Amino acid sequence: MTSQNPRQLHIVYAFVLFLAFFAFSPLLLSADSNDHMTVAGGIAPVRLQVDSMTNPVGVDGQAPSLNWELRATVPGAHDLRQISYRILVASSANELARDRGTLWDTGRVESGQRLYIAYSGRPLTSYQSCYWKVRVWDQVGNASSWSAPAKWTMAIMHPDEWKAHWIAAEPDGPLEPQARENQGQWTDSAQPLPIFRKEFRVAGPVKSAIVVVSGLGEYELHLNGGNVTDSVLNPGWTNYRKKVLYNTVDVTRRLRSGTNAFGVLLGNGMYNVPGVHGRYTKFVGSFGQPKLILQLHIEYRDGTETLLTSDSSWQTSSGPITFSSIYGGEDFDARRMQNGWDRPSFVTNAKWRPALEVAGPDESASSPGLQLSDRLIPPITIAEKLAPVRVTRPRPDVMVYDMGKDSSGWPEILVRGRAGDRVRMLPGELLNQDGTVTQTSGGAGPNNPVLFNYTLAGGEERWHPRFTYYGFRYVQVETTRAMAGGQKPEVLSLWTDFTHDDVSVDGHFTSSVTLLNRTHALIDRAILSNLASVISDCPTREKLGWLEQTYLAGSSIMNNYGLLKLYEKVANDMAEAQFANGFVPAIAPEYVAFVNANGNSTNFRDAPEWGSAIILSPWEAYRFYGDAEILKDHYESMVRYAGYLRSKLQDGMLSYGLGDWFDIGPGQPGEAQLTGKGLTATAIYYQDLRTLAAIANLLGKEADAASFEKEASEVRESFNRHLLHADTATYDRGSQTAQAMPLVLGLVPENLRQSVLENLIKDIRAHGNHVTAGDIGFHYVVRALTENGRSDVLFDMLSRDDSPSYGYQLKRGATTLTEAWDANPGASQNHFMLGHAEEWFYRGLAGIDVDMTRPETRQIMIRPAFLAKVPEAQAKVHTVLGIVESSWTREGANVVWRVAIPVGSRALVALPNTASDVSMNGGAPPQASPAGEFSLGSGAYEFRFRLR
Predict the structure, then answer these.
(1) Alpha carbon of 307 to those of 164, 296, 587: distances in Å?
(2) How many angstroms separate the Cα of 734 from the Cα of each of 360, 429, 661, 678?
(3) Which of 539, 560, 536, 558 has the alpha carbon at shortest distance from 549?
(4) What is the tens place of the pLDDT at every residue in 204-236?
(5) Is the pLDDT of residue 373 over 90?
(6) How far apart (Å, rounded) are the C-alpha atoms in residues 46 and 147?
(7) 48: which residues sit within 8 A by CB, 6+ positions away?
(8) Whole-angstrom distance, CA of residue 691 vs CA of residue 708
(9) CB neighbour class for 51 (10 Å; exposed up to 12, middle 13-18, buried from 19)
(10) Residue 484 CB partners (closer than 8 Å, separation 6+)
């Protein structure tokens, strides 16, 4: 074989590369009508969202916001970022595929922005479908390919486009006043709930069919015999005299040429809470009778349009649901179900009559200004089905199904029997000594139980409740035969339908410590069980939107789940509950007023730590998601509430409310025992003022910001004058809450901070590493220890398995976080208000701290606690910036730590000051700041070091 001239080899190699370029040019080159041919870049836009949702149906604003994330297309690349973008929005998928932005073409925009870009194309119309895509350019000017196409569909844009009428089965009665606890009219029985139907014809090939619908209190919509959505308990809970939500559903593929039929079942929900003797309820109250509004818009392929609306041409009948209460359960008599009632060509009989056109909940002098709103919120879905892990027979006629985990939802059964046979289901969280189910933890009892009752039509039948839910682990089943001497019905299968808001799973945490992982699971299931249109306290006794947990536990739940839309809804609920004088009640929507016999608010209604959620919850949502609209929308409400609290000051202090609810004192848990109410209420007011100052600055209201800062300074002086014992570096009575809150909120004089922290730790150690703080204070205990480098103390607290502790709850068999630290069986067994350890798992142990209020280069900070007692920990959080990851392993003094930073972002990554022999990705790390921080661009990094 002869040797080759090097010059000849170069020519050969060049020719090969030339051929390869053309062979792979379809992958490397991209072009469009306005852009020069460019080499494809190292980044690509992914996860396109509109108003923070994926392909939403029912967008009701003229300027929806557009988001996307960035993905690296080259493995192992670092420090990638976007410098420009181009968005196309078209009125059809075909136009978009041809790169025609018929609704909006931004052209190339020189910007790294990829969050909350407001649509500013042609005006949008009701029911319109919009198709869009985006391309981006990286920092060296390389263009990406176009993203995969995405879509959104508009709702009704203008109130006058509503042509439908509210319809009901009966004439409206008089408007009832707001419900009050322990008041209301009770009856011995309930009226069956109505069903509705309407036949209509489709005249030809359909291009688009969009239905907008609301049923109060809740509804299930059928079309041609099938449920049109997989969501339940629609449309969502609101203050029905101010806002009613409706849903927008694309039913194009469900229509058929010729005759079609709608069928609708209605439920009561929170809209109509009956008081029926023998069934549990938290309160009795009503916004009116069940009613329905529906409008179907059909656009045919020939360009013609038609509108079907609810009116008196619809028909109604008494339905199979004979009792339904959001608190007391549901009864269903399948013998009353008329087969085919929701299908075309059903022949109605004397049981059917024309529906009545009635007023909506707003159409009275006492409640002007109601909105029919399609403000999208996460729908509630059946997220999981659980089979029983054990079945027992505590009595010959009683079966008890252990479903393994406490869950929100309902039991679903498959049963065989004769017409008139009955199945009685008693759900509960705990068992009595004899193995039967008790509902004591949910507030009910033998004389007023929560029940799910099913009466068979005859045959093999499957059923679950539709318009109520409950928190339970166990189901007690009893059956009765229709006729004496016959066989009892046979329950063939029973399982739990776990229902909660359909939110994205944004976080993942695990460690090498089993107890920490079990605690994480305990809290996580309680969080999910209480996401149900509101952020509730428990899925049993109350199901109310208690407000303090929305900001105190905000970080704990937002690290796990995507909740911006739900937090927007909560903020609206609070604004709609607010009084003219600025007062915000402790629950929103305020379905029941907690007042005394004289009609005056009790501490359960007016508590600064609860009402302050109107300021602190939107701020918490902004910290996580960076969308300032929630602050703009509610700034005036925030200012008004601060004014209300200002009017309650006495010598610069607030000293009323519930205080540190459920702390561990000498008495039974309830209102604060170890900490004065003046400390928690005034500290929260100080936090309100500092937060309002930050919000005002963000919104360009500098004068307001200066005023709030000045008032905060005055409150700080008063707080320390009344509560600080400088000689002992303690606040109030020196409780954990009293020491932690001032530390976190910046109330402690700088020269005393270390001593106050040491006293906090001293109290924890004195209690055997047990917590004594309650609902308000524990959040600040977690933050005080995390932010001051004492995660070792938190670990010791979370390692306890004796009372009071998370470990003790687990030892007692809890599968969801309980209301009381000691797992008191008389309190709720599914409460997440004390779940603040979840924040430490992510922010402390794994070190992931994302805060969109900080400068761009500091929005992501990663600073783990490399504890000697935790060999491994890992977490990732899917933020609005992308996925942030932190995982580490430790063997003795040797640590391997891996981090991942999303494309388009930078992060501050901090090593402990005891680290030595540091390497990064196999080489020397960049120069660290005096605080041990590295500023790193996007990509994956591995650090290896020793701890001295």
Answers:
(1) 9, 6, 39
(2) 54, 36, 17, 14
(3) 536
(4) 999 999 999 999 999 999 999 999 999 999 999
(5) no
(6) 6
(7) 54, 66, 67, 68, 132, 133, 134, 147, 148, 150
(8) 9
(9) buried
(10) none
Compute the Cα dihedral for 518, 520, 524, 526 and give only its sign. Answer: positive
The pLDDT value given to residue 363 = 53
- Describe the chain by its helix, strand, coil percentages, rounded to 5: 25, 35, 45
Note the Cα 944 to chain centre separation in Å.
38
- Per-residue pLDDT, averaged over 910-923, amounts to 94
Higher-confidence residue: 466 or 74?
Answer: 466
Backbone phi, psi, residue 354, to 5°: -65, 140
Q: Out of 204-218, 369-383, 543-557, pick the least confident.
A: 369-383
Two tokens, residue 288: 């009116």
Buried b (16+ CB within 10 A) or exposed e, 520-541: bbbbbbbbbbbbbbbbbbbbbb
Tens digits of residue pLDDT in 46-101: 999 999 999 999 998 899 999 999 999 988 999 999 999 999 999 999 999 999 99
CA dist 477 and 189 (Å) reads 23
What does the alpha-carbon distance between residue 127 and residue 403 come to, in Å, rounded to a whole number?
43
The predicted-structure confidence for 699-751, as pLDDT tens digits, reads as follows 999 999 999 999 999 999 999 999 999 999 999 999 999 999 999 999 999 99
- Joined tokens for residue 479: 């059956």
Amino acid at 285: G
586 contacts 605 by C-beta, under 8 angstroms? yes
For the chain, what is the mean pLDDT? 93
Angstrom distance (rounded) from CA 415 to CA 751: 71
> Residue type at 592?
V
pLDDT at 524 over 60: yes
State the CB neighbour count (10 A cutoff) for residue 927. 6
315 close to 196: Cβ distance less than 8 angstroms: yes
Q: What are phi and psi of 479, to 5 degrees?
A: -120, 150
Run of H or E residues at 273? strand 272-273
Angle at the Cα of 405 from the Cα atoms of 403 and 411, rounded to 5 degrees? 45
Cite the DSSP H helix spans in 69-219: 93-97
The stretches of 592-728 forming alpha helices (DSSP H) are 608-611, 613-625, 629-647, 677-698, 702-723
For tokens 């761009």, the residue is 856
Query: Does pLDDT of 12 surpass 90?
Result: no
